[in-house]
């Protein structure tokens, strides 16, 4: 089994910053690409950012220049630094990871989500 736990969400004002974290644990041999998704009320889940095990990153156009994704492979963690937050960034943010397990096998793991609210 593999667990992903997000943390760092909260209520902030427009223009402020937040840093989300995702910690993976369990029967992990290695983790390939890790991703942050978000889902706002009434909207579909959308990909926000991704990072490969080698550190290659990609971002949604809506967050480029404001968000930075990083990871620590030794600790099986991923972070999302969110700067200059806007009301439209309000959503539940989910961590996703492509995990190679010790079973062996592979699975697509998801966290439970953390709520980010940007409002004045």
Work out the number of β strands.
Answer: 11
Number of helices: 0
Low-confidence stretches: none
Radius of gyration: 14 Å
* Ends distance: 40 Å
DSSP strand content? over 45%
Largest sheet: 7 strands, mixed
Instruction: Give the CA-based shape.
Output: elongated
The secondary-structure element order is EEEEEEEEEEE
Mean pLDDT: 97
Helix content range of the residues, please?
under 10%
Structural class: mainly beta
Topology:
Layout: E1 2-7, E2 10-12, E3 18-26, E4 28-39, E5 46-51, E6 57-59, E7 67-72, E8 77-82, E9 91-101, E10 105-110, E11 114-118
Parallel strand pairs: 2-11
Antiparallel strand pairs: 1-3, 3-8, 4-5, 4-9, 5-6, 7-8, 9-10, 9-11
How would you sum up this structure, described in words?
This protein is an all-beta fold. It contains no helices and 11 strands. Strands 2, 4, 5, 6, 9, 10 and 11 form a 7-stranded mixed sheet that branches. A 4-stranded antiparallel sheet has the order 1-3-8-7, with no helix packed on it. It starts with a strand and ends with a strand.
